[in-house]
Amino acid sequence: QVQLLESGGGLVQAGGSLRLSCAASGYTFSDYAMGWFRQAPGKDREFVAGINWSGGGTYYADSVKGRFTISRDNAKNTMYLEMNNLKPEDTANFYCARKASRYGFRDKQNYDYWGQGTQVTVSS
């Protein structure tokens, strides 16, 4: 069965960095685009970054552009999110997801499988 497992979250001071990983199993990883979303308490789950099947196309929310970098290693069935210059407003549970639709990356309705999330907390 399809499984997505995030790791790498934690507590970091503002201005610090973290690298999240998403290990995929149960399907051919390189056949699918992927995305990262986040959800803060009391807020809707929002798009953070997306990557096409090969890694040649990447997409970012305006709020993270220039600070976050999404990448993937199809040989390792793993996707990454490198997060630099973290801000307190980045505090959220971060989820990876498999994109099932050929439509836009930003709409969470276009994803069919989700991980359980990894918590990122940025202190000021």
* Number of DSSP-assigned strands: 11
How many separate helices? 0
Portion of residues within helices: under 10%
State the low-pLDDT regions, or none. Answer: none
The average pLDDT score comes to 97
The proportion of strand residues reads over 45%
Q: Which series of helices and strands comes N to C? A: EEEEEEEEEEE
Shape descriptor = globular
State Rg: 13 Å
Characterize the largest beta sheet: strand count, sense, and whether it forms a barrel.
7 strands, mixed
Alpha-carbon distance between the termini?
40 Å
Helix-and-strand structural type: mainly beta
Description:
Helix content is 0%, strand content 50%. It contains no helices and eleven strands. The protein has strands at residues 3-7, 10-13, 18-25, 34-39, 46-51, 58-60, 68-73, 78-83, 92-99, 111-114, 118-123. A hairpin with a 4-residue loop joins strand 7 (68-73) and strand 8 (78-83). The model has no long low-confidence stretch (mean pLDDT 97).
Could you give a quick summary of the protein structure above?
With 124 residues, the protein is mainly beta. It has no helices and eleven strands. The N and C termini lie far apart (40 Å).
